[in-house]
Structure formats: structure tokens, C-alpha cells
Design a protein that fits this description.
Length: 530
């Protein structure tokens, strides 16, 4: 069998390829060469990117086999997460890989602006010795405003605390108590702008944050303000910044990120009071190795059909080892449920009973939904788009947990209501040391049968000799019955039989059985392996 193709679209640490291992056909492409990227995506199961490759709707659509987009870094503004989710493609990043490097670069920019290190270096290399021109300022007792007190903002605060600076922050999503623990005072954006000697920005680029710093904000700032942006280009309006720096409305700026990267013919590069770096926040050996290894591990998990802790568009996270065996069982129960339902479903309860119910079992809800839609929709169903498919169909989905399970150590049930009012249910469990996957209930009938590839479910009126009647039909069609369970509520009442058969029923067999036993229900339910 051909190995899945993993496409590396940007330069990554060699540790990435090592961590991917021998199981993939690893190919490279320049992610900024659009036609080449689109062509290469056609065969890719996974694509690994940094910040220069645009994985938009068009690129995602070009990846017909694509299962995972892995961003070796933090920012995901170059990935259309909504389009990926709709297409069932998992998006993962490496959220902590480069935060130390990015924080250290921000501190480096702050020190460069305080002490004119880049300018002095350039001047000396030009043969000059200008000591008074490059007289700087100390950070000690200066007010430093941190915009965004998340992972990187926090690391910056911890590092700047060592300089004896007075730290203030603006982050509407951070509590004053959390900030206080870091020795930072939370203030409004206006207060931060008015009070700061330095501002450093560490927020995501969103419609809300684009242009957060423009002419109006610079008008409120001290003329001595030095501002640093190592987060995303465009959070500072570049035209307004040019104006503020060239008119000395503010003192200086340090930028690692730009609206267009690389910024072609930007007037900012003509200014003396700006320090520019070409998006180097994550460019350290350590960060690149961490990011590469982290996404390689995520890609391996994702292509093995596992949930990935760093997936950003899948609820799942770390899966407890006790819960893990329930995932394939739940997927199969989902397929049985859809086979039984045979009509539009309006609600689904995913019930987890027994000791695992006390753990985080959200993943079992995803597995059930994946199973339910696997043989129902034409698109490929994954943990990513299964909840969306339920939402699009207006299906109300609930996860019900109960630590008490009377008969089985753990019992997984999918119970649903159809739009015509019919109720359908199937339950399963894992038994014995081999953890055999069994169906133990169908539509309220108790059964106990190992799950197989092909099942026949029959409902008919209980009467003597009926097994011989349908057994004859299967025998004459050359179909071997591997397992059978009959369940009934009362003698002579309705009975439900589940058979497992070794091969699919040929055309005409089900009809023949139906008329031979006068079955009310007769369905073949096949399980598609993930
Ligand atoms: N220059 C580079 O190479 C790198 C840049 N980055 C960028 O740095 C930025 C920060 O990354 P992390 O700290 O990992 O993110 P994070 O998600 O941990 O923190 C972001 C913080 O911003 C806050 N926030 C969101 N909207 C805000 C608003 N309107 N005003 C104020 N605060 C707001 C959030 O509450 C959160 O605390 C991101 O844009 C990321 O893409 C990350 C790594 C390297
Ligand atoms: O991969 C890179 O160099 C970009 C790093 C970055 O900006 C991020 O991780 O958000």
C-alpha cells in the first residue's frame, strides 16, 4: 500500500522529518508558490506549514485527501479554520513551541529601542564613534504597557520584572487577580497608551485587533513612547505609524511583523527611529525543533485516526487510557444506530454509564457522531466535521453520563428520536481481558453478540420453528451465520434476532427471508472500518 503523503510547505527543523519517521512519503514544496502548492496538495494527507503558506478555502479544496493541516508555530491567521472544519480537516498548531523565543525577541526589541543597539552597530561599522548620539534610557522604573497577557505576554512580563520596570497591561480577558500574581496592573487601553514609556503587543490578529493602534492612539501617547510589535502585522496601522514616527509624535518603534510579508518598498524602512526584523520571533533552533517535533507527533496521531491534543478545531484533548478503547466501539455503535434508524433523526443522546463516566468522555460523543454519519453522507466524516454535520441537520445532541451501571462495568448507549416519533437505541460494551466489542441492547431488546462486519437485524412474531425457516434461506444462499442472538419480551410476542454473517447478503436474500418469516423489520447493517 502506498504511504500517505506528508507535504512540507516551508522550511522546518530537520527534527521534524526525523519525528515523522519512516511511515510517510515526505515531499516538499514552496508554500508561497501557489500553483505548485495547489498541485502538490492533491495527493497530500497532511501539510506542514509556518506562517507564509496560505491554507485558504481554495487550498483546502485542492487537498482532496487532506486530513490535517499542521502549523509549526502559534498564529493561525493563515489557515481558514472554518473551511477546514467543513471539509473535515483537522487543524493543529504547536501552541507553546515558540513562545519563549517570541518573548525574548520582544524583550530584545525593547532593549534595542532603549539603547540604540542596531543604530550604534551600523554607525560603528561605518567607521564612526558616536557616543553621545546614542545615549539611551534605562528600563528601570519605566512604565511598560503589555497589550495581551496570554502565553507570550506573560513571559514578557516575567522577564521585564527583572529590570525593575513598572508593568501595566491591557487584556479584557484576563482577571486582575491573575495579573496581580504576575506583578502587573490591569488598566484600560487608553490608560495604557497614556502612561506607557514602552508598549509591547502580544495579541492575535482579529477583526477587533486590526488597526488597534492608529493615529488616534498615537495622539494620546507620550512623545517618548517606544512601541514594539512582535505579534501580527496590521495590529499597528502602518501608515499611522509612519506618520507618528516621521513627525516624532512618538519616539521609536520595533517591528517583527508586517501587513505584507515581506513588506515591499515600505516607507517604514526609510525611517531612522525604527528597528525592523523579518518575522524572527520563532526563528531559534530551540523553537523550530520544538515546533517541528510537536506537529510531527500531531500528524502521526491524526493520520492514525487518533484525536490530537493540539487540534484547534476538535473538542477532545488528552484521552484517558480507560476511555480510549470505547472510541472504536462507539464509532461502530454509531453505524449500527444509523442502520437501525432508517429515517431522519431529530435528537441523539449519547449515554455513558459506569466508572468511565467519571472521566472526560467528550471524545466518545465525537466518536458516536462520526459513526452515525459515516455511511450516511457522501463526504468523508471525521472527528472534525461530525458535530458540524449534526448541527447542519438540526440534530440535538446530548452527552449523558452516569457513574452507575447495573449490569456492565461500562455501558455505552446511543439513543435517538426520529422525526416521525420513533425511538431507536443501541448499547455496547467491552468484555473480558480481550476487551471484545459487543452489542448488548437494540431498541430495548437485550442481546449479547460480538460486533462483526455484517449484521442482520430482524423483528418478527415469535413462533416455533422460525429459526429453521430463516436458517434455510441463508443456507440456500450460501451465507454462513457466524453468530446469533434472539431476544423477546414474552413468548409468542415480538422477537428480535441479530445475526452476524460472514459475507454480505446477496440480492434478493433479505426479501426472501422477510416473506418467509413475515418480518416487520429486516435490515442488514454493515460496519465500515475507519
Ligand atoms: N513574531 C513571531 O514570530 C510570533 C508571533 N506570535 C504571535 O504572538 C501573538 C500572541 O501569541 P500568544 O501569546 O501565544 O497568544 P495567546 O492566545 O496565549 O494570548 C493572546 C492574549 O491576547 C488577549 N487578547 C485577545 N484579544 C485582545 C484584545 N482585543 N485586546 C487585548 N488583549 C486581547 C487574549 O485574552 C490573550 O490573553 C499571536 O498573534 C501570535 O500569532 C507567536 C509566536 C511567534
Ligand atoms: O513560523 C514562524 O516563523 C512564524 C511564527 C509565528 O509567527 C507564530 O508561531 O505565530
Amino acid at each position: 500500500m502506498a504511504k500517505p503523503v506528508v507535504l512540507i510547505a516551508e522550511e522546518l527543523s530537520p527534527a521534524t522529518v526525523e519525528a515523522l519517521g519512516p511511515d510517510f512519503d515526505i515531499r516538499s514544496v514552496d508554500g508561497t508558490d501557489r500553483p505548485a502548492l495547489l498541485a502538490a496538495l492533491a495527493e497530500a494527507s497532511a501539510v506542514l506549514i509556518r506562517s507564509a503558506t496560505k491554507m485558504d478555502e481554495e487550498a483546502i479544496a485542492a487537498g482532496k485527501q487532506l486530513k490535517v493541516i499542521a502549523r509549526a508555530g502559534v498564529g493561525l491567521d493563515n489557515v481558514d479554520i472554518k473551511a477546514a472544519t467543513t471539509a473535515g480537516v483537522m487543524v493543529v498548531n504547536a501552541p507553546t513551541s515558540n513562545v519563549i523565543s517570541a518573548a525574548e525577541l520582544a524583550v530584545g526589541h525593547i532593549l534595542s529601542l532603549a539603547r540604540f543597539i542596531p543604530e550604534a552597530n551600523q554607525s560603528m561599522k561605518a567607521g564612526e564613534w558616536k557616543r553621545s548620539k546614542y545615549t539611551g534610557i534605562e528600563l528601570f522604573e519605566k512604565t511598560i504597557g503589555i497589550v495581551g497577557l496570554g502565553r507570550i505576554g506573560t513571559l514578557v512580563a516575567q522577564r521585564l520584572a527583572g529590570f525593575g520596570a513598572n508593568l501595566i497591561a491591557y487584556d479584557p480577558y484576563v482577571t486582575p487577580t491573575r495579573a496581580q500574581q504576575l506583578g502587573v496592573q490591569v488598566v484600560s487601553l487608553d490608560e495604557l497608551i497614556e502612561q506607557s514609556d514602552f508598549i509591547t503587543i502580544h495579541i492575535p490578529k482579529t477583526p477587533e485587533t486590526t488597526g488597534l493602534f492608529g493615529a488616534a492612539e498615537f495622539a494620546k501617547a507620550k512623545p517618548t513612547l517606544r512601541i514594539v510589535n512582535c505579534s501580527r502585522g496590521g495590529i499597528i496601522d502602518e501608515e499611522a505609524l509612519f506618520e507618528a514616527l516621521s513627525t516624532k509624535r512618538i519616539a521609536a518603534a520595533g517591528l517583527d511583523v508586517f501587513v505584507n510579508e515581506p513588506p515591499k518598498d515600505s516607507p517604514l524602512s526609510t525611517l531612522e527611529n525604527i528597528v525592523l526584523t523579518p518575522h524572527l520571533g520563532a526563528s531559534t533552533d530551540e523553537a523550530q525543533e520544538k515546533a517541528g517535533v510537536s506537529v510531527a507527533k500531531s500528524v502521526r496521531l491524526a493520520l492514525d485516526g487518533e484525536l490530537v491534543p493540539d487540534a484547534v478545531n476538535v473538542a477532545g484533548g488528552v484521552i484517558d487510557e480507560t476511555v480510549r478503547p470505547g472510541i472504536p466501539l462507539m464509532e461502530k455503535l454509531g453505524q449500527v444506530f444509523s442502520g437501525l434508524a432508517q429515517g431522519p433523526v431529530s435528537s441523539v443522546d449519547i449515554e455513558i454509564r459506569g466508572e468511565i463516566a467519571e472521566l472526560d468522555v467528550k471524545v466518545l460523543k465525537l466518536a458516536a457522531l462520526k459513526g452515525i454519519f459515516t455511511n450516511v453522507v457522501s463526504e468523508s466524516v471525521s472527528y472534525v466535521n461530525a458535530p458540524l454535520l449534526a448541527e447542519q441537520r438540526g440534530i440535538e445532541v446530548r452527552l449523558v453520563t452516569d457513574a452507575v451501571s447495573d449490569e456492565y462495568r461500562n455501558l455505552l448507549t446511543i439513543r435517538g428520536g426520529l422525526t416521525d416519533g420513533t425511538q431507536v437505541s443501541v448499547s455496547g460494551t467491552l468484555t473480558g481481558t480481550k476487551q471484545v466489542e459487543k452489542i448488548v441492547e437494540i431498541n430495548g431488546y437485550d442481546v449479547e453478540l460480538p460486533i462483526a462486519k455484517h449484521h442482520i437485524v430482524m423483528v418478527y412474531t415469535d413462533r416455533p420453528g422460525i429459526v429453521a425457516v430463516f436458517g434455510k434461506e441463508f443456507g440456500e444462499a450460501g451465507i454462513n451465520i457466524a453468530g446469533m442472538q434472539i431476544s423477546r419480551r414474552a413468548a409468542g410476542g415480538q422477537a428480535l434476532s441479530v445475526l452476524t454473517i460472514d459475507s454480505p447478503a446477496p440480492d434478493g436474500l433479505l426479501e426472501a427471508v422477510r416473506s418467509a418469516i413475515d418480518a416487520e423489520v429486516l435490515q442488514e447493517i454493515d460496519i465500515t472500518e475507519a
